[in-house]
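Structure request: BTB domain-containing protein, Eleginops maclovinus.
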Amino acid sequence: MATNGINLTPGMGEIIQLNVGGTRFSTSRQTLMWIPDSFFSSLLSGRISTLRDETGAIFIDRDPTAFAPILNFLRTKELDLRGVNISVLRHEAEFYGITPLVRRLLLCEELDRSSCGSVLFHGYLPPPAIPARKLGPASAAHGPSSDERSGPNGAEGFTRVGPPPHPSLSGSPGADENHKLGPVVDPRKVLIIAGHHNWIVAAYAHYVICYRIKESSGWQQVFSSPYLDWTIERIALNAKVVGGPHGDKDKMVAAASESNIILWSIQDGGNGNEIGVFSLGVPVDDLFFIGNQLVATSHTGKVGVWNAVTQHWQVQDVVPITSCDTAGSFLLLGCNNGSIYYIDMQKFPLRMKDNDLLVTELYHDPSNDAITALSVYLTPKTSVSGNWIEIAYGTSSGAVRVIVQHPETVGSGPQLFRRSLCTGAP
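Returned structure:
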């Protein structure tokens, strides 16, 4: 017996015939009615007037493509999104009043929506206040230096990049008015950012700001350096200093410009102390920490090392450096004579005869080409075997070589594993 688009089948309940946008669907009253206060519960209870087609099926003037996954959800309580536009499906689910389905689709949309930096967005750190500059008597008498004056191509508050005007890095009493002006630098612009563990440091033109994250309080500003009279070009951060002067809770931040390096020690409470100002003697190309050691290198062939335990700064002359990398406690230097040298920083080794750094040649390129690119991988050390060291390097002639040293072949040096050569432009 069929009555008004509803078939009554003994023992099977009522079968509902639907015509959605010209496509016919058959389902049970139980399937359509299990969500209270939905479109279907109102329709089948008579609270909403119905239209019927020529066969007596209930006509619903909606998208049949979107209705199919909705009906499948009502039948199985599972959601299949293959080939479905989530936004369109959510709109249709809201029309039908399928609240459980709408909730699921909203969660799906949140995963796909890019909000303030996408799903990986973790926090926003507003621009800090610029530290006040400490002026000495001479600076106050002569007014702002040529680095700070606004010119025809600059704006007030902007500075020009130039060499440090005075050996003192903060609050210099004077400045050289005749040094060559460089490009204008906005003091509010973040120039460099670096991270280590749960700390990050942001370098602006004349100061650095350190932030720390805690689960209970999120990101917080911990340290602001004094205003520096030179433009920062390199920064390094060590958020886990073991055996430092204040125990294991010290953090260290270093900043460099030209040949000068300034180093701060920061405690957990945010108190910062200037450890010292060091000079490499030549422009610093790379600045980083290896364990407790602050390392600065220059392509001219200088390596500077400061040790947190001995509180000692030492500069070593080596062959001109064309590349470098670190692995564990090792510093590896690729040089223009075709050699790869290494320094093991773990025990800050010094030669007994002259207290120089212990620089050891690890490998020499067979073609004597300069080592222009260097990448090192050190496998974790196990109780069964020691470290494997794998080095890929490129040379000035276009060759790329991979060399490997196994724990059992330490005495014989790394062995060539693979070589390739670029013979021409693509």
